[in-house]
Specification:
The protein is an alpha/beta fold. It has a single domain (4-209), classed as Rossmann fold (3-Layer(aba) Sandwich). Helix content is 56%, strand content 13%. It is built from nine helices and five strands, in the order βαβααβααβααβαα. Strands 2-3-1-4-5 form a five-stranded parallel β-sheet, sandwiched between helices. The chain binds adenosine-5'-triphosphate (ATP) and magnesium ion. Residues 16-17, 95 line the site of magnesium ion.
């Protein structure tokens, strides 16, 4: 596969959706062929699973049900969106992917890490991101950003601050032994954060994102 798969990760309010939109625009301006998506979601079926997971309308969701719904959404995202796009040589940029499952369902909910990794690999068919950028902000900062935007917390966010603190720590740990995961300081203005990400992308993949790319 000739494309590049880039994932933006982080806790709620870290700025993922903001940065995916900015990077999408940035690539468009440079003529870099790309496609953006989000997880869970990104397809009609995936968005329906997302509604179940985030709305809370279905009441309590057992941890393993949550895990399997996340992975069900991932399989369709990988099969129908990511793989075909990479095969066409596009840059795929995704708002969350497999790291979210390790951080939230394993470290956050307490499911067995090795088991979650194995199920993740099954769901993705082994497709990993070329790079996952974890936008790192303090949990309170992230929640404050969401609140400032007038958003009420979704079912998972509403789990609470201690849960989200575990998730943030998990991201930091997951980056330690993995060259394909990089921690990006999520503080400062959206433009500051974007510049940090672009710098990393250009350094790592100059043939795709460098001045002469596109
Ligand atoms: N660098 C930043 N500084 C201040 N505010 C920001 C910054 N980046 C994004 N925001 C604002 O903070 C709020 C949350 O950002 P965004 O929706 O991009 O986060 P997210 O990581 O996608 O969150 P979620 O996990 O809840 O989807 C938005 O209102 C956004 O405009
Ligand atoms: Mg978002």
């Amino acid at each position: 596969m000739s494309g590049r798969f880039i994932v933006i990760e982080g806790v709620e309010g870290a700025g993922k959706t903001t940065q995916v939109a900015r990077l999408t625009r940035w690539m468009g301006e440079r003529g870099i062929a790309h496609l953006s998506g989000r997880e869970p979601g990104g397809t009609k079926l995936g968005e329906r699973i997302r509604d179940i997971l985030l709305s809370g309308a279905d009441g309590a969701v057992p941890d393993r049900t949550e895990l399997l719904l996340m992975l069900a959404a991932r399989t369709v995202f990988v099969e129908q969106i990511v793989r075909p796009a990479l095969e066409r040589g596009l840059v795929v940029i995704s708002d969350r992917y497999d790291l979210s499952t390790l951080a939230y369902q394993a470290f956050g909910r307490g499911l067995d890490l090795a088991e979650v990794r194995r199920l993740n690999a099954f769901a993705t068919g082994g497709l990993r991101a070329d790079l996952s950028c974890v936008l790192d902000v303090d949990v309170d900062e992230g929640l404050a950003r969401g609140a400032a935007a007038g958003r009420s917390p979704d079912r998972i966010e509403a789990t609470g601050r201690a849960f989200l603190a575990r998730v943030r720590d998990a991201y930091l740990r997951l980056a330690e032994n993995d060259d394909a995961v990089v921690i990006v300081d999520g503080r400062g203005s959206p433009a500051d954060v974007q510049n940090r990400i672009v710098q990393i992308l250009v350094d790592r993949f100059p043939e795709t994102f460098g001045a002469s790319a596109g």
